[in-house]
Design a protein that fits this description.
The structure is a single chain. It is built from 4 helices and 6 strands. With 306 residues, it is α/β, with parallel strands linked by helices. Strands 1, 2, 3, 4, 5 and 6 form a 6-stranded mixed sheet that branches. Helix 1 links the parallel strand 1 and strand 2. The N and C termini lie far apart (40 Å). 46% of the residues are buried.
Length: 306
């Protein structure tokens, strides 16, 4: 599947920028950073079917996906998150299913919602972050809301809302009611869906957006100046257009090198993805330390901390 349908132009406020980023805030790369554990709640939006069905996902499948997300962010050896790239690292960011509801009750971090109890579902994905919170929405100061919502397979795999920060490319406030991540039920975790989006990397990609990362090419369009658009990360190359697939039709970076197909912020096949660069990690950690509705996640009382 071509993940180009993931492009979040409705939610990004981008400005053109060259590699001379004099106005960027200082985003230091730290050798031994603090480990941040962030609480997530998975809102499973279903149609009344039994737990374990294609839409009302089993608890084991949800836990498997969160484990895969952690493997990717922590660069865990022996998993799909492992890589040997010299410009990559452990992000020291991990995710934990919420243990307490907003009311203080115990929870497994999974909130199941029958959409027929609220309003009829629709198959389009316009205004998702205005509609999904009406189905379920926990305090975004304390939880990362993850909505698992069924759309036709191989249409839209996921979307995310961006933080409000002083980082270039993300200036401005959230323009939608909801704040979180949506993943298509058929592309959540390991799945048997046909295509190349079936190994759980959609959530990793979208969580990158949620924590302030852009696609490698920004909003580049073919025919424009190769260096006009950027993701505002120093250790990722300028690329002239979106990157899909693992082999074959891979664009060159603007410096003439082969564009990095293994970066999580491409639209490549799940089997390719295994790298956040150190610069991308530093940007995500800056967001967690400075952005409203991101920095409070580090100290949320929705989980116990070891």
């Amino acid at each position: 599947m071509k993940k180009t349908l993931l492009i979040l132009t409705a939610f990004i406020l981008l400005s053109a920028c060259t590699e001379d980023s004099d106005n960027q805030p200082d985003v230091p790369i730290i050798d031994q950073p603090t480990l941040y554990t962030l609480p997530v709640v998975v809102h499973v939006i279903h149609d009344g079917e039994d737990i374990g069905g294609s839409i009302n996902l089993a608890e084991s499948k949800i836990k498997e996906q969160i484990e895969g997300l952690n493997n990717d962010f922590r660069r865990v050896k022996g998993t799909l998150g492992e890589n040997n790239s010299p410009i990559s690292d452990d992000a020291f960011i991990q995710f934990k299913l919420a243990e307490f509801t907003p009311e203080g009750e115990m929870t497994n971090g999974i909130n199941r919602v029958n959409y027929f109890d609220v309003f009829p579902r629709v198959n389009d994905y316009v205004d998702l972050f205005d509609r999904l919170p009406k189905l379920a929405n926990w305090d975004p100061e304390k939880y990362i809301n993850i909505w698992v919502y069924a759309l036709p397979p191989n249409t839209l795999a996921g979307r995310a809302s961006f933080p409000s920060t002083d980082l270039p490319g993300l200036e401005g406030d959230l323009a939608t009611i909801g704040d979180g991540v949506m993943v298509n039920s058929f592309h959540f975790g390991f799945s048997t869906v046909d295509g190349t989006v079936n190994l759980g990397k959609t959530l990793t990609h979208e969580m990158g957006h949620f924590l302030g990362l852009l696609h490698l090419w920004g909003l580049a369009h073919e025919g424009e100046d190769c260096f006009e658009y950027d993701d505002f990360v120093q250790d990722t190359p300028f690329v002239s257009r979106s990157i899909s697939g693992c082999n074959g039709n891979i664009p060159l970076a603007c410096d003439g090198s082969v564009a990095p197909t293994n970066n999580y912020m491409n639209l490549t096949s799940d089997e390719c993805m295994s790298v956040f660069t150190k610069g991308q990690i530093a940007r995500m950690r800056y967001v967690l330390e400075n952005a409203p509705r991101r920095m409070t996640l580090r100290t949320s009382n929705a989980i116990t901390r070891e």
